[in-house]
Write a structure and sequence with these properties.
- The structure is a single chain.
- The protein folds into two domains: about 1-25, no CATH class; about 30-295 and about 340-510, Amidase signature (AS) domain (Amidase signature (AS) enzymes).
- The protein is globular, with a radius of gyration of 22 Å.
- The chain is built from 20 helices and 15 strands.
- The protein is α/β, with parallel strands linked by helices.
- α12 packs across α17 (about 415-435).
- It holds the Pfam family Amidase.
- Keywords: Signal.
Length: about 525
């Protein structure tokens, strides 16, 4: 067999790329750091990278339904990145420069891509500009590869809409187990990066939509402090809770993305200005420490689990992980008196959804009204659209209960202001008090259960792969902290990840999709 044929066979089997000198680069589970080195040392081009991911999408997406739309300009953007790097233009050889990223379909891009939140009601609408985080990604040199699929309207249209389903793409499929849940609304972002259809992705979270899909897809998700990343140009649910964050295969990759998207945005000025004080000088990469767990105080809820049943079983399953945390130098603090905390969290979880009805109508109407063109201009229009397209939107099957309840609201009055005030107070006497009383650096929970404690107050959380059920379905471990504690959470998560190295590629793809490398 001659060398050329040997290289071709190797590339097919292992997902390898070769430059003129024949030095191989493996795309399989390639991390941002590896891609960065290969690009900067001419072992790889952005065009080759984009071509590989486009091939993966063509092969896998018919089964997984993880990508809703591919950017028709992706290869042109890759060529420009290659030219800029060869010319050594400022910023062309750092961070995410020349690296593809998929965005959840509720994050606006001012290009040939649609921004629809998975709904046909917003198809062919035209946004006035890139979302704030997209502007930052473009400045960082990232290549917008396309839009990831999602649960329609970020899972807010109705509780009857299945996780991972939207009218534009249909039902998303978990790459580890086709009958497993997709969980949350950033389903396509988590699935596509888990299945190696892209290098990195962005998701959004209001209450669990980054952490939950990350957990069931064996990937890392960071839900930042509200305001640390801009929400401008993102189809909203609740400005009080909405946050944009990375979903990637590793903590390191997620931190590369986080560094690129944090910071002040004049189009989301109040929240981003307030949160900008939390951003450390020099960014977050410096917190990828091999001894990040040393001395950290981590709280473990023993008696109850923030409203979840079978908490003792969940905790027993995680005992080996708790042992690893101790071995790495963490101090685990058992929190046994949880009745008061559970009561507060349970009340908050109900109240936040009551508040969201009012917030959603106001925020969505404002978003729709600023679109340059759109088939719909208000929540009322969306409801009418859905009724007219019942077959397309599966209204008779899935309904639009939350939309209809939100439409009945009449703005923020005395009752609503009191509810919002009580939510803020409950966060302070609940999660914040717990963290401060026990002097904790983070609260630890199995899977994404931390969501119940952190969502209403806008606190940060991070999920890391933690294992696989007997049927192969992944689950994660989550760490949550006080506002601005991303640096600590990254130290904790990175050290745990490096000590365990649990993540493995989805076996479903190897069994059913020949194009998977």
């Amino acid at each position: 067999m001659d060398i050329a044929l040997l290289l071709l066979v190797s590339a097919t089997i292992f997902g390898l790329s070769h430059n003129a000198e024949g030095s191989p680069f493996s795309f399989r589970e390639a991390a941002v750091r590896d891609i960065r080195i290969a690009l900067d040392h001419n072992r790889l081009t952005s065009r080759e990278l984009v071509e590989f991911y486009l091939k993966q999408i063509r092969g896998l997406n018919p089964v997984l339904n993880a990508v809703i739309e591919v950017n028709p300009d992706a290869l042109c953007l890759a060529d420009k990145a290659d030219r800029d790097r060869r010319a050594k233009k400022p910023g062309s050889v750092t961070g995410l420069a020349g690296i593809p990223i998929l965005l959840k379909d509720n994050i606006a891009t001012k290009d040939k891509l649609n921004t629809t939140a998975g709904s046909c009601a917003l198809l062919r609408s035209v946004v006035p500009q890139d979302a704030g985080v997209v502007k930052k990604l473009r400045r960082a040199g990232a290549i917008i590869l396309g839009k990831a699929s999602m649960t329609e309207w970020a899972a807010y249209r109705s509780p009857g809409v299945p996780n991972g389903w939207n009218a534009r793409r249909g039902q998303g499929v978990n790459p580890y187990h086709k009958y497993a849940t997709s969980c949350g609304s950033s389903t396509g972002s988590a699935t596509s990066v888990a299945a190696n259809m892209v290098a990195v992705t962005l998701g959004t979270e209001t209450s669990g939509s980054i952490l939950c899909p990350s957990s069931v897809n064996s990937v890392v998700g960071i839900k930042p402090t509200v305001g640390l990343t801009s929400r401008a140009g993102v189809v909203p649910i609740s400005p009080r809770q909405d946050s944009v964050g990375p979903i990637c295969r590793t903590v390191s990759d997620a931190v590369y993305v986080l560094d690129a998207i944090v910071g002040f945005d004049p189009d989301d000025a109040v929240a981003t200005k307030k949160a900008s004080k939390y951003i450390p000088r020099g960014g977050y990469l410096q917190f990828l420490k091999s001894d990040g767990l040393k001395g950290k105080r981590l709280g473990i809820l023993r008696c109850s689990f923030v409203g979840f049943s079978n908490s003792s079983e969940a905790l027993n399953a995680f005992e080996p992980h708790f042992h690893i945390l101790r071995q790495r130098g963490a101090v685990l603090v058992d929190i046994t008196e949880t009745a008061r905390f559970d009561s507060i969290v349970s009340s908050m979880f109900n109240d936040q959804f009551t508040a969201m009805r009012v917030e959603f109508k106001l925020a969505l109407n404002a978003y729709l009204q600023q679109l340059i063109t759109s088939p719909v201009r208000s929540l009322a229009d969306v409801i009418v659209f859905n009724k007219k397209h019942t077959k397309l939107e599966k209204i008779e099957e899935y309904g639009q209960d939350n939309f209809e309840e939100a439409e009945k609201t009449n703005g923020i009055g005395r009752v609503e202001r009191e509810l919002l005030h009580n939510l803020t107070g409950a966060s302070k006497i609940g999660f914040e008090k717990l963290m401060k009383d026990y002097k904790l650096d983070a609260l630890v929970t199995p899977a994404p259960n931390i969501v119940y404690a952190i969502s209403a107050g806008g606190y940060p959380g991070i999920n890391v792969p933690a294992g696989y059920d007997t049927d192969g379905t992944p689950y994660g471990i989550s760490f949550g902290g006080l506002k601005g504690s991303e640096a600590k959470l990254i130290e904790i998560a990175y050290d745990f990840e490096q000590a365990t190295k649990i993540r493995k590629p989805p076996p479903l793809l190897r069994n059913h999709i020949k194009t998977y490398n």
